[in-house]
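Q: Mind making up any chain with structure tokens?
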Amino acid sequence: MINTLYLPELREMLVANDQVELKIFCETLHPSQTAQFMEGLSAADQWNVLRATDLDHRTDIFSYLDWERQIEILATQPQDEVAEVVAHLPADDRVDLLDEVPEQVVEQLLRILPANERRDILRLRQYPEGTAGAMMTTDVVRLAQSSSIREALEELSDSANDLEMVYYLYIVDDDGYLRGVVSAREILTAMRHPNRPLREIMNTDVIAARVNDDQEKVAELVAKLDLLAVPIVDQSGRFLGIVTHDDVIDVVLEEATADAHQMGAVQPLEAPYMRTGLLELSRKRGIWLVILFFCSLTTAFTLEHLENELLPWMVAFVPLVISAGGNSGSQAATLIITALARGDVSLKDWSTVVGREIRMGMLLGGALFFVGLATMWLFPKVSSLGLMAMLVVPVTLNLIVMAGTLTGSVLPLIFHRLKWDPAIMSNPLVAGIMDVMGIIIYVKVATLIVPAVV
């Protein structure tokens, strides 16, 4: 609300071209707040506000603007001015941004940028989306093994304002191979001997990721080892850049959102919900609705095929038995998909997972057996047929829950083995599979327990 209240004053400043007040506005608050207060302005007006301050503040505020607005500014405002901001952005952020800008605009901006920045952008843009190379930044301190502690501290002091991560300093040899890492804390602690070479204090057991590694693997590495950054090397071990923890957080949120969408039977959205058009949103949701429709159609065909074997009193319990299978299968699928994403479960654990879920199915199914048997007394039409008829639903619940837990746990592992996203095995899809299995199990149990009646 506060940003809406601030808009009239901002517009008055722009109309009056009050550069002094606009500069104060840009430099008084945190850049994120300044960007928030500017939300109601057009792209042109936002850029006019940013013109009033220096390049550092301009870049900081620009980075907090809405993603779509950043793209619009790059595409519509004077290119010699926006090129300065692009050159000042972190390497990984500007590559992500340029990937969304029309290609003709990118070509024009690249011609304006300094040669070293242009080469860096072109090099980073060659890495496939979703890899460590696509998310890394090259703005990092590189030091020689022979550098002294004093020289390292001076380099850190000179470069701190231009770097995303200053806590780790990476040591390379003359050929650019990563040989070690030293933290800023270790540098400060070792200042008692400022002429001591870095090779004597650096940690040579460096955990690094390959440039073509999947971004999820990098995120798991950071989470597992509690790192602030991960060095990225090429296939031969040459140091290329780093992936910082804030980029990892973005990846984790992105992957979690995609998994949540898929588990809810929605294709992952490429833009936030409020900025996704109705046609695009309907396509993302409609594809899965069609798939689930055919799953339900299979259930209908199964019911039609077995309807002669369903007694009138059994029809009332069809939703009960198939929902039990779908619910138990969805529970198991959610747990296994989450465990795979966190790295708690791998393919080599499949036998343990299957064994656990079989036992879990027996426990849960057994519990529902007794609950189902107790509630059968509430249905006089069933209880009047005797104990054997009363056992049909409880036995079915027991078996269908066992089948659901087993199916829900095994299918994500199969998808993972096939290099498919296990989240595709969404809860509605598991429920659709269990609907068919539930009906078949229900009818077969009834045929075996009360064959004379059926």
Summary: The two ends are 67 Å apart (CA to CA). The longest strand covers residues 178-183.
